[in-house]
Amino acid sequence: MKFLIALLRSPQAAVDACGDVEQQRRIAVTSLWVIALGGVLFGAAVGSFRGFPQFGIAALKLPVVTLLTLAAAGPAFYGIASAVDRQLSFRATLALVLCAGARSSLVLIALAPLLALAVDFGAAYPLVRLAAVFSYGLAGLSALAFILRALGPGRGRLLGTLSFVMTFLVIGAQTAWLCRPYLGDPRDETVPLFAHGRVEGGLFGALADGGGR
Amino acid sequence: MTLAALLCLYLIVGLGLAVLQLVREPSWSWRGLAAAAAALVVWPLWIPFVDIPHARRQKPMGTDQRPACARVDSALACARARVVGTALDGILTQRDVAGISDQVRRVAARIEALEAELTRLRTGEAKGSSRRDSCAQRVEEALKRDRCALDELGELADALATELTLAQCGHSDSVESLISELSARIEALAMA
After folding, report:
1. Which of B2, B38, B52 sits opposite A24 (nearest CB)?
2. Interface pTM (ipTM) of the complex?
3. What are the chain A neighbours of B2 within 8 Å (beta carbons)?
4. What per-residue string of b and e applies to A89-103 under the rule 16 or more CB within 10 Å gives b?
């Protein structure tokens, strides 16, 4: 709990803790749990728009999407950090990425009740979708602030952060696209587990198809 | 490669790592099961953290040699201060003090290296083999010798400082023999 408070209130202490070999495992375990919990709660809030079973399906899908994105983006961050001359071990880099993920998940946990409340008050589909995107944006900003701090001052900080953000966005968008829907389009009588006909191509396949037409 | 094939490959790697994780656990526990689940689902994020407790065990548990070095340095500085500007100035020059100090540091570094080696031998995977045990025993003996030598140097340097004070008052005739002994020990350590 102390670590989570530090993550929100004094991120520099959390960044320093990520460099400590003795603490890295504990940080990884805590962060993974927080990321999973954040995904489940926020997914449940999003899925509550269509009620059961979408409520449970979205609660399962969102943490999987977040964790798979981090699994691909984490090692990439190590490469990016090395490219901008940051001497970080692989474990420390992954701990930092997990911490950033945990920080954004804490923001999602805080916002999930608001989203659920909006759904409960009968907010329309576009509004709920916008609110979910806004929540993710806010959570992403808190993670971005952490990543900026993790790279520390000096040359290459902005380049490193931008490179990581781009990498994360591309991986995240593709993974999220493959696993949609979460909210469930009101035009669908039954919400499908995965959007039909778009699984293989993903976001970029869909964009390429759209460009070709 | 299709997405399904990629997912299968990802899960096969995860499954292998999860099994390894379970095999590594000394007994069944929820904690071990959670670690195996993490290894299955998010192995790129989890696996780098799995070996940390093992690495912690392998960290050299060496004793800090700095106090022993500081003791010798302080005694030598004290002894040198007693002879500066006196008839005994040439008996213990600043160069002698620096030379002894350097040698003491070398011995301290050697002790730390031996301690690290001993830890490695005791915690390594092949621990328990007779060859490894015999190596560990030899390292232990060398370590014991060097620790004794460092302690004795500290005592000698202390004694030298005291003798020099006595010599200033005209009550000591063993300063030269003490310096000879100190030099001999330093020489022996350098050759060890």
Report:
1. B52
2. 0.79
3. 200
4. eebbbbbbbbbbbbb
